[in-house]
Each structure stands twice: as structure tokens, then as C-alpha cells.
Write a structure and sequence with these properties.
The complex is a heterodimer.
Chain A (H helix, E strand, L loop, with lengths): L10 H6 L3 H15 L5 H27 L2 E4 L4 E6 L5 E6 L3 E8 L1 H5 L2 E8 L6 E8 H16 L10 E5 L2 H9 L2 H20 L4 H23 L3 E5 L2 E6 L4 E6 L4 E9 L7 E8 L11 E7 H11 L11 E2 L16 E4 L3 E6 L3 E8 L5 E6 L1 H5 L2 E7 L7 E7 H20 L1
Antiparallel strand pairs in A: 1-2, 2-3, 4-5, 4-10, 5-6, 7-8, 8-9, 9-10, 11-12, 11-17, 12-13, 14-15, 15-16, 16-17, 18-19, 19-20
Helix pairs in contact in A: 2-3, 6-8, 7-8
Chain B lengths: L15 E2 L3 H26 L4 H28 L1 E4 L3 E6 L4 E7 L5 E5 L2 H6 L2 E6 L7 E6 L1 H18 L4
Antiparallel strand pairs in B: 1-2, 2-3, 3-4, 5-6, 6-7
Helix pairs in contact in B: 1-2
The chains are: A alpha+beta, B alpha+beta.
Chain lengths: 422, 165
């Protein structure tokens, strides 16, 4: 199906590049101080050693590159043989494909190269990372992997329909107006004013923390989610994002276990929301696969949710709200606590300042729990939890009337039973 | 559908309790932990502190011991499980009550375990795992034969009804 190939011959150089500053330091650092007093030999020795060491490093990287080959075999599995002395043969069953990501780290991008990550369901050796391929090779490999995963050799033609896009301006405003960020920034301004008024230096340290943390998080998220685009492709939804390193990731809709629609207080006037998802088998690693859209108008975001959870109308959910007695247990948030069960999904709502609506199809709920603390019992309340795969989404209907929870848990157990067979 | 307002109401077949040997095991553990408390008492007795301190210490330790002893009994008798046609129910807890319902089709693994003390007393723990890490379905204090039979039944039903991830 495909001849064994190597990654790009430039790969060892890109991999060895991060060590260059250290080498340069060795050449300049000790040399500049000693050159006058002890004369040349020591400088030369250090320089030669550093260069030889680096050469050896590059040579090993190059040999490792030479010995690493990858291909898709006749069974439709992705194979990778690697290792200098200890050879290893890795094999991914592509019929269990979870995701193919193309990532362009900064250094690789300078050389015009990208990294391809292929992940399948299951534990242990479930991923192959290929560093580095040219863009064309990567696209070709991705097409082959996806083709092999679908078990058909359809004519390729990456027909994709753009669904959503986040402009830089909206992303920045959205990030700045997130509840915690906005609160910390406000605290910083107050601190600066107070420090200026009292002329005391004590506030400076605090300002660094309250101002530094949110700015750091805004910058990180901005770089990661810059030029965020979602498009529909035959395999699911393709997400592309990133400024310094571009990531491209495909979410197969049948891998989405739970969805959370989040709206911070300061976004609500603009009617913006953020959508996070829990995807089976993939946990929030550096790729952060858990954001479906970082900030979008509500209608646009709900359209995306409908892509991964068809036939779900979030606005038509009939929630059962927490009773008035819940205000003694959750004085701030009790008005927003609620739970709804439809024939297809279970949904819960929570949060006052940052409001969250989380939902999961019954077929994805692994178990359902009821908990009741001593205080809840006194108030006639109980909490309902639907356990889903690990991820950013939590489905919990807290502090609802005990009678409601009793009937909800019965309904949910019944729905879970039926959802399994379909 | 039964309109019972109690979320923890037992199913038609009732709850199956766990062995009271679990209480014995936990009380032995408590007694062993109390060796540290006794050591503290000895330290006070040897120190130049007034005898009143020692008496207060002993009384307090005894009260706490009795209370935890009693609590263990109640906690163990609060455990119960029920096998329904399609799912397993587990209840537990007195201060914080919990009920978990795991459909057989969602089980990924059934663990059977017993520590040295458990083995000596003849009890085992059965724990169910699903794809969700938050599923908390543990049944401690089962007689070994019951535990093995339960595990095998659960595994068989799980296989029958498995619905993949």
C-alpha cells in the first residue's frame, strides 16, 4: 500500500538546533574570560570539545533518523520502525483511529516542516509522532491515514465547509473578559491606585501576581487559539488554530462524549459563549483538544454543538430547577442550578457568574450517582451526577429537590439502558 | 414507575448487606492506629505535666474511640448493593449518602481485591470500573465466595451487553 519512508532529512538538524545556544555559550563564555591570561590552548580545547560534542550529537540524531521508517501496511495499520541499537516496531491499528494532528512547532516551521501525530483508541502505545515531514507529505499521510481508517479507498478531495472562525479582536476581548481574568485585572488596577495613593511599596509584589497571572494566561491562550477555524470535513470537524505553532485536528463526532457551553458574566451582553468538549481517549495534553470554539456568538456556537450532537436543541431543554430551599446550601448559585433529561441527552446547569450548561448523550454516560450530604438532607435536597469519560466536562445537577432527583435518577438509569442498544 | 420521593429507596429486591466482618476489620485498623494515641498518653505520663492533663487526654481519647467504634458499625451497615436486570446499584454512607448505578454494559473491568487483614478475616472487595474515572462503585466486606461469584456474574453480564466506548 505504501513503501517505507523516512521523515524529512532536515529533521535531525531541527532536533539538534535547540542545543546550539549551549554550544555557542561554551565557545564564547569561558573563552572570552581566559584568552588573555592562560593563552590559547584552553580556549581551543573547550571549543574543539564543544564542537565535537555537538557533531556527535548531530551524528546520533542523524543515524536515528536514518533508522526510522514509517509506512502503512497492507492490513491498513500504521507502522514505525525506529531505534539505533534497540530496535522498536510500533504498530497502530488505524481502524481504531482517534485523531490525526498536524502541528508546526516554531523551529520546524522555520525549516518548512511539520509534525504529525496519529493517535488510536486504547492504552499503552497508542500514538505515533513523526518529526518532521514537509507540509505536502503530512497532508498526504493524513489523507492516507484517514482513508485507511474509513476502510475505503475513496477518491480524495478534501472537501471542507467552513463553519466558524474567530477573529483576533474578538478572541482578545473574549479572553480579557473571562470572569477570573477580568476580576484579577480589576484587582490589579485597584491595587495600583491604592499603592500610588498610600505610597507604600507593599502592593508591588501583589500587583505582579494579580496582574502577571491573567496576562500570562491571556497571552498563552491567545497564541494557542489565534486564527481559530472550524470546518466540516467528511471525517468530522477539523479545527485549525495557533500563532507560533499551528495545530490542525479532526474531531470525529462519534468520539464526543460530553459538551459544555460556558458563558462568563461579561460575555453575556454580547451573547458570546465558549464550548468545551470531552473526547474519548484523548485527555487535555499540550494539544488541548478540549476546546470546540474559544469564543463565538451563541447561535454560531450552538450550530457547532449540533454538528457533534445532532438532534439536540439546547434552547428547548425543559430544566427542573433547584427549589428555594437550595439557597441555604448554595446562596449565590442556587437560581441557576438545574437538570434536564430528554430522550437523547442529560443536561445540567450551574454557576451564577460563569454559567455552564453541560450535556451528554445517554449512550455516553458511564454511570449515574446520587449524593446527599447531611446539610442537603436537612433541606430535602440531593445531587445527581452523570459520570462521563475524563475530560473538561462535568455533568452534575447539584442541590435539587430530593423527590426530583429520585425520579430523575430512575429516568436516567432507564434511558442509559435503552441508549446502549441503539 | 415508582413515585417514591426517596432517592435512596431500596429496589424491589431490597439491598444486600455486606458482612459484619468488615466492621471487625475496620475496628482492628482503628485499634492499631490508636497505638499512636496510647504512645502519646505514655509521653504525657512521663513528662512533668500535671496529672489533670493525662486524665483529660485519656477521657478525650476514650470518647473519640467509642464514637468512631460506633460510627464504623453504622457505616458498615449502611453499605448495600442490588443486582437488577440491567444494572448494579450500590449505596453507602451515613453523613454523606451515596448511590451509584452502573449499567452492566458500561463496565470495563471488575476488580477483586483483599489485603492481608481482609484475607485473615475472610472478606474481599469488589470494585467496578467504567470509562469514567469518577464512577465510584466499590463493594467492600464480601465473603470470598460471594465476591468471586459476584465478580463472575458481573463480568458475564458485562460481556453480554458491552457497548463500546
Amino acid at each position: 500500500m505504501m513503501q517505507p519512508r523516512r521523515t524529512s532529512p532536515l529533521s535531525p538538524l531541527v532536533q539538534a538546533a535547540p542545543a546550539l545556544p549551549a554550544v555557542a555559550l561554551f565557545l564564547i563564555g569561558p573563552g572570552s574570560g581566559i584568552v588573555d591570561r592562560t593563552g590559547l590552548p584552553l580556549v581551543v580545547v573547550i571549543a574543539v570539545a564543544a564542537i565535537l560534542g555537538y557533531a556527535a550529537f548531530v551524528a546520533v540524531a542523524w543515524l536515528a533518523w536514518w533508522r526510522r521508517t514509517f509506512w502503512i501496511d497492507d492490513d491498513g495499520d500504521l507502522r514505525m520502525d525506529s531505534g539505533l541499537i534497540q530496535r522498536s516496531a510500533r504498530r497502530l491499528q488505524l481502524s481504531r483511529l482517534q485523531s490525526v494532528d498536524i502541528v508546526a512547532p516554531f523551529l520546524a516551521r522555520l525549516a518548512g516542516l511539520v509534525e504529525v501525530r496519529v493517535e488510536v483508541a486504547g492504552s499503552g502505545e497508542s500514538r505515533i509522532v513523526l518529526r518532521y515531514l514537509t507540509r505536502a507529505e503530512a497532508d498526504d499521510l493524513r489523507a492516507r491515514v484517514l482513508e485507511s481508517a474509513r476502510g475505503e479507498s475513496s477518491a480524495q478531495g478534501p472537501e471542507s465547509t467552513p463553519l466558524a472562525q474567530v477573529t483576533a479582536g474578538r478572541l482578545l476581548v473574549g479572553l480579557l473578559l473571562r470572569s477570573v481574568t477580568a476580576a484579577l485585572l480589576l484587582a490589579t488596577i485597584v491595587l495600583i491606585v491604592m499603592t500610588a495613593l498610600t505610597q507604600g511599596p507593599a502592593g508591588i509584589v501583589l500587583v505582579l501576581i494579580t496582574g502577571g497571572l491573567p496576562i500570562l494566561s491571556v497571552v498563552t491562550e491567545f497564541l494557542a487559539n489565534y486564527d481559530f477555524r472550524v470546518a466540516r470535513v467528511p471525517e468530522g470537524l477539523r479545527i485549525r488554530r495557533g500563532l507560533l505553532s499551528t495545530q490542525s485536528r479532526t474531531i470525529p463526532p462519534d468520539r464526543v462524549h460530553a459538551v459544555s457551553i460556558v458563558s462568563p458574566l461579561l460575555w453575556r451582553r454580547r451573547d458570546w459563549v465558549r464550548v468545551t468538549v470531552t473526547i474519548a481517549g484523548v485527555q487535555g495534553d499540550e494539544v488541548r483538544p478540549d476546546v470546540l470554539i474559544p469564543v463565538a456568538p451563541r447561535a454560531e456556537a450552538l450550530a457547532l454543538v449540533a454538528e457533534v450532537l445532532p438532534d439536540v436543541d439546547v434552547d428547548a431543554l425543559e430544566f427542573i430547577s433547584a427549589p428555594r430551599s437550595a439557597r441555604w446550601r448554595a446562596p449565590l448559585t442556587w437560581r441557576s442550578l438545574a437538570c434536564a433529561i430528554t430522550p437523547r441527552i442529560i443536561a445540567t446547569r450551574s454557576g451564577r457568574i460563569t454559567r455552564r450548561t453541560s450535556l451528554a448523550p445517554h449512550a455516553r454516560v458511564q454511570s449515574v450517582r446520587v449524593t446527599q450530604g447531611a446539610w442537603e438532607r436537612r433541606l430535602g435536597l440531593a445531587s445527581l451526577h452523570a459520570d462521563v469519560a475524563p475530560g473538561p466536562v462535568e455533568i452534575a445537577g447539584r442541590h435539587l429537590a430530593e423527590a426530583d432527583v429520585a425520579s430523575l435518577v430512575r429516568v436516567e438509569a432507564e434511558r442509559m439502558r435503552r441508549a446502549r442498544t441503539s | 414507575m415508582d413515585p417514591s420521593p426517596d432517592a435512596f429507596a431500596p429496589p424491589a429486591a431490597g439491598w444486600i448487606p455486606v458482612s459484619p466482618r468488615l466492621a471487625t476489620a475496620r475496628r482492628i485498623t482503628l485499634a492499631l492506629e490508636y497505638l499512636l494515641v496510647v504512645a502519646g498518653g505514655v509521653a504525657i505520663a512521663l513528662s512533668p505535666l500535671a496529672t489533670a492533663w493525662l486524665i483529660a487526654y485519656v477521657v478525650l481519647a476514650a470518647v473519640v474511640f467509642a464514637w468512631v467504634w460506633w460510627l464504623i458499625g453504622r457505616r458498615v451497615s449502611s453499605f448495600g448493593y442490588a443486582e437488577r436486570d440491567d444494572d448494579l446499584l450500590v449505596v453507602s454512607g451515613i453523613l454523606i449518602r451515596r448511590l451509584v448505578i452502573v449499567p452492566y454494559g458500561r463496565m470495563q473491568m471488575v476488580d477483586l481485591s483483599a489485603g492481608p487483614l481482609d484475607r485473615w478475616l475472610g472478606i474481599s472487595t469488589v470494585q467496578l470500573h467504567t470509562a469514567a474515572a469518577t464512577t465510584d462503585a466499590t463493594i467492600p466486606g464480601l465473603l470470598p465466595d460471594d465476591a468471586i461469584a459476584l465478580r463472575d456474574r458481573l463480568a458475564a453480564r458485562g460481556e453480554e451487553r458491552t457497548s463500546g466506548l
